[in-house]
Amino acid sequence: MATANTASGLAALPVELIQHIGSFLIPACVPGERPYPCYGCARRRPGCRQWFLGQLDISRLSRACKPLRDVIQPLVFQCCPDGGPRPIRRLILLARTLIARPDLRHHVKFLMSSDVYEDLEPADNQFVQDAIVELGLPAVPDSWISGGEPEYHLLPLELVLAHTPNLEYLRMPLDYDWSLHLLPHLLKTRPPFLPNLKSLEVFHHFTAGDRFEISMDAVETIVTAAPSLEALCLPNPNWMSGGAFAPLPNLRRLYWQSGCATEMDGLAAMLDAAPQLQALALPWDAMDDQYNYCDDRGTADAWEAIELRKDSLRELRLDIRENTLQGSGKLDSFLSTLFPPSIREVTFWRLDGEEMRAAMVRLAKVVAVGRYPDLKTVVLAPSERSERQGYNEWHNADKWNEVKEELEEWFRTGGVKFELRWDSPYWMASSLD
């Protein structure tokens, strides 16, 4: 009798309180246990990798206690990570559930998709084909399941996206020849179908001998469907724009993960499409392809692209290799004149070389006389990518100690906090919030 009363009493509590109690079943990562926080740890949101473990407990609770099922079950679908075995089949199972249970669709907020392809059961193949037809598209061939045709590689993910109207965060793979099959059709027949998507992270599906590129047509389709997008993370700006990029009216944060094969026209097109851009992270190594370095004109184009947003940019994170801006004149020109006047925070990843150190001292002196009145913080740190992958590319970091006190004094005079860090600020966490 006591057990029955307890269950009845819990079920009678307000929905918000029951959901709050259920959230305690989800373990959060403890700061300091990993070299970098997993998705969501910075804000303790359900993108955390530990969420998957908590999902199992919540799912069991929703099945074991029927009075709580309708309240607890939506928590199971709030975040759909890419961990666990058979990730593509998990996407198809998720699509099955969302199609059969429309009441659960608006609860899906976070979705992470893996780039691992796998063999599927005939029933899964038939389900995807039937679901595509029900959405008004011609039937796809049986060969879509092989993963060999770029047009269909993302089909299970597209099917899920067609049924997640409240999605806020999406992480997905792309390769240079992949395209979308379903979503372009939805854009023609529906208003923007991802109205609440705030953060999009794309990672490169790399295979041996692959090109360091992604399909920007696919990215444009998704951002067009997501007019509220505020944060965008892409592998690298190495695509030919062919003209203007899709409008990004609300984009605030743009993060390029790699500077390899940077294409200036594409970089400029994207910055031009984002009039409200406030934060830019750009690993810039001056390479125009895998083997050749840019000439002076290409380097200048990169900084002129940044100047396009000089009225809105507040934060820059730049991974600059020593050979990017050879010569103290070029360094001084960049550090002292090309920074947007409204800049508030600058982070340099793995900045190295004697000329770099001398140029930074001259920048500090410019700041000391009030050149950038809004500037509050200057940080030197290892690159985020280096720390994630477990090696240090900042080979001569200790040499910055030779000028550290001088830099601190000049920056302090200008009201700026200067930090020399041996760990990398995890920019990705804040960029996708």
Automatic annotation (TrEMBL):
<dbReference type="InterPro" id="IPR032675">
    <property type="entry name" value="LRR_dom_sf"/>
</dbReference>
<protein>
    <submittedName>
        <fullName>Uncharacterized protein</fullName>
    </submittedName>
</protein>
